[in-house]
Amino acid sequence: MLKEIGGYFQLELQQKKQSFYDSLLHLNSGRSALMYILKARKYSKIYIPYFTCDAVLKPIVNLKISYEFYDVNNDLEPIFDFDIVKDNEAVILTNYFGIKSTYINRTYNKTKNIIVDNAQALFSKPIDEIDTFYSPRKFLGIPDGGLLSSTIKYDEILEQGISYDKMIHLLKRIDLGAQAAYLDFQKVESKLEHEEIMKMSHLTESLLSSIDFEFVKEKRIENYTFLHNQLKHSNDLNLKLSTECVPLVYPFKTQRANEIRNLLLNENIFCAKYWPNVLKWCTNEQNSYNLTDQIIALPIDQRYNHEDLNQVLNIIKNYYEY
Known about the structure:
Distance between the termini: 65 Å
Radius of gyration: 20 Å
Strand order of the largest sheet: 1-8-7-6-5-2-3-4
Largest sheet: 8 strands, mixed
Mean pLDDT: 94
């Protein structure tokens, strides 16, 4: 198509010479990136943690691949015997909340068929020859998009994705706020579930190219550290943030999670619950059940400063004092 010159203006986005993770395969979603791996590798069985999003299981089920769950401990590490994995099988390792990069780097060579789920760890660099997928929209205000690091090629021509029709919740939130756009957000999530594997859209590529990733990285680490210094003695998780980690949220584990989450919600502080589907997959005999039930994902992202985080802290501290 000939380049269009003149006419009305488009969104003014900063165009960098290179986009983020330029060498990786840019797809339309993290789910598509996982589907790409599964189709290309043709595994007969996948070992998957109980403690994960149902979006990870859906491609496995859709491809009719056998699967088996495993549990994780309070260090957010697998309770799993890697020696049982056969040549035509694979195990998914999840970089929880972006804080398990050191564990992943220490563990990936325990078996040859590892799939690293970096959906919550955008800044964790891929390991050579290890299939790794990312979901950048969990960290950034973009409509869709997924990234894939893999040595294998899926022999199918991919169509270009379209994203303009997934922007309404992002735009409406600016004008009307998060609650006014929440139903639109849910509609976009539902739409993404049913998309085939496609290339990342031109719109999402442009949005990614306009982001100051160094600022995003530094702000998240700063905010995480600020919350951790205040909450570490009350947190049932023993958290250690290595220099190679950039967190998604601050995971605050407490048996009072539901009460505190409701108090935060009443003050328009929205904390995602990771993940409600886990409570259906297992019972409280598995530790994953307790992780889902007792972890509050406190926001620490680049939109917020210490003044914002003090609002969160005051609610939590007041609850404990009461």
